[in-house]
Amino acid sequence: MRQAPGPDRTVNPYLRLLRPGNALIGWVGTVVGGYAVAGVSHLTGSGPLLVLVLAGFTTFLVTSAGNVLNDYRDREEDRVNHPERPLASGEIAPAGGLWALTFLFVVSPLPLLGAGLLAAGTPFLVGGPLPLGLWALAVALLLSYEGVTKARGFPGNVTVAFLTGEVFLFGAAVVGHPILALPLLGMATFATLSREIIKDMEDAGGDLSRRTLPQQRGLRVASVAARLSVGLALVLSPLPLLLFLSVGSPAFVIYLLLVAASDAVFVWSVLDLPQRLHAGQTRSKVAMVLALAAFLGAALR
After folding, report:
1. What pLDDT digit, counting tens, does each position of 142-191 carry?
2. Residues with Cβ within 8 Å of residue 113, at least 6 apart in sequence
3. pLDDT tens, 226-274?
4. CATH code for 179-301?
């Protein structure tokens, strides 16, 4: 029997509690979302980049808070499933985790407010309340996920999927083009939803604390749902070509090639369902990386 890994004592436990690698993906998504809809040539100079970097730190802090909240609520189960995590291993007391969680949620809007002050009087930051509203929505969804929707399975899948897509919408709202990001929001949401369903299919036998779609409806219905989600993401993928990319431009060609590759791998990820579930998950991750690269390619204009 394989022994579970112990805690890594070389890294500060509070840093490990944040899961910074996971949170960094949200930071990158915010920056990419802003540049994808506005284009590099329209956000020249260090000012727009700094604004998006600051807004990305808000995403980083909210994502970190979500990770801490997850570990805090699941600390008893994690003593068996993830004993290396700081709250489960006892390196951080529950009270310490609660203080860290509260601190992260409280300070998370500050980088965004700083970005607003930095961009005052310039054309590349939305003047209205939308970015702050999206921050508040993300916090509310994280709290509702851990408190309600996570245990209900599919509603929790939808919540996680939307939070993933909202990162791109948030970045686009910061630079004043939220409408253009709606296809990116939809693509990321439906693609993530497919992967979340596949993960639940893989864990259907041992996932006892949640009422997941595979448990309630079976693997065949869950497979149909995963394929439908991928299909919806594929339908949305050409929209950036029509909305904000010039036909024949380098950005058009790069996006077209990368999104076509991403779509192909997404289709591949659901072809074998309900067999080869782990392979489907892995392919879905590859497809997501290609999709992120496609969004970044769209910015090269």
Report:
1. 999 999 999 999 999 999 999 999 999 999 999 989 999 999 999 999 99
2. 132
3. 999 999 999 999 999 999 999 999 999 999 999 999 999 999 999 999 9
4. 1.20.120
DSSP string, 99-133: HHHHHHHHHTTHHHHHHHHHTTTSTTS--SSHHHH
Q: What is the pLDDT of residues 13-50, one digit of tens each?
A: 999 999 999 899 999 999 999 999 999 988 877 778 88
Could you tell me where in the chain the CATH 1.10.357.140 domains are found? Answer: 11-177
Query: Which two three-digit tokens encode residue 293?
Result: 């690269």
Query: With 90 as the cut, is the pLDDT of residue 78 above it?
Result: no
Q: How many CB atoms lie within 10 A of CB 130?
A: 16
- In CATH, what number does 11-177 get? 1.10.357.140
| 266 Cβ neighbours under 8 A, 6+ residues apart | 191, 194, 230, 233, 234, 283, 284, 287
Query: Which residues belong to CATH 1.20.120 in the chain?
Result: 179-301
